[in-house]
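Can you give me the bound-state structure? Components:
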Amino acid sequence: MLNFINQLPKAELHLHIEGTFEPELMFAIAKRNNIEIKYNSIEEIREAYNFNCLQDFLDIYYAGAAVLIHEQDFYDLTWSYLEKCAEQNVRHTEIMFDPQTHTKRGVSFETIINGISRACKNAELKLNVSSLLIMSYLRHLSEEEAFETLQESLPYKHLIKAVGLDSSEKGNPPSKFKNVFEASVKEGYIPVAHAGEEGPASYIWEALDILKIKRIDHGNNCFEDELIKEIIARDIALTVCPLSNTALKVVDDLKYHPVKRMIELGLKVTINSDDPAYFGGQVNTNYIELQKALGLTKDDLYEFAKNSFQYSLLEEDIKRERLQELELFFEDHQ
Ligand code: HPA
Ligand code: ZN
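Here's the bound-state model for the whole set.
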């Protein structure tokens, strides 16, 4: 099973680049930028990664991201993640980045996007990993600030495929971002959003009806008959993040993870790492731990991988190629 998961061609659809920041790289970049961080050792950092809720994590995540200053920092962060993709046979990844986390500190949009996208281009050539970018608005900030970010992004529109919505969910419903999502879609960005991680089912309804999203990030709180019916009718996938859910106490134990119920109800599920440096595992570890906890079969895992390509934002011809590659793998590894 371990080999099967490691070799399974897959896509990752829910990944925050700032959440891939391993303590070793964080220390190295802090040092070269002459920035003090409040931890004395890598062990001390890891000990701090003990969260009771989403906000606990976000406070530490934003503090960590504050050492990123130069284009090369964003390049190194992204490259380091893409190398891990290659090792795990992640053939395609859709990377979220939070421009406001950096522009608020005086880092330019250009610095961020150039560093990240240069690493992506290089990975396509040297690692055979494809990728695209999802610019995510921070929902604890105002819609007006999201509009400023949309404006700043326009010269780099060709480098960005989609817009997302992340950060503190409770008290920040999708409807708060109605106008900026409408404007983003007009600019050609595809809308996705975090919904139903800590927030209620009504936030998922809002994300669907008001933001018109094409994919639900997390979606744990989707268990309402009418909502399930609607998600299926619209053929929308959920980007589920098992180890994120246990780390942030969204789920008590993987044994009780709702993913099995989701599958039984006919929902389209993909498996992802969210913020792997903080939640104890890359995407393959998420597959492995979930498989062990729920006794999933190779067919279940194949279905996750298939959904990951099917519900990616790849162009149809490349999507078909990736799906064929997966199918050939599965015929050989039943
Ligand atoms: N939820 C909301 N915001 C985030 C997350 C998450 O899981 N990860 C990074 N920003
Ligand atoms: Zn997330």
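A couple of observations. The chain has 17 helices and nine strands. The pocket of hypoxanthine (ligand 1) is lined by residues 16, 19, 54, 166-167, 194, 197, 244, 274-275 (CB under 6 Å).
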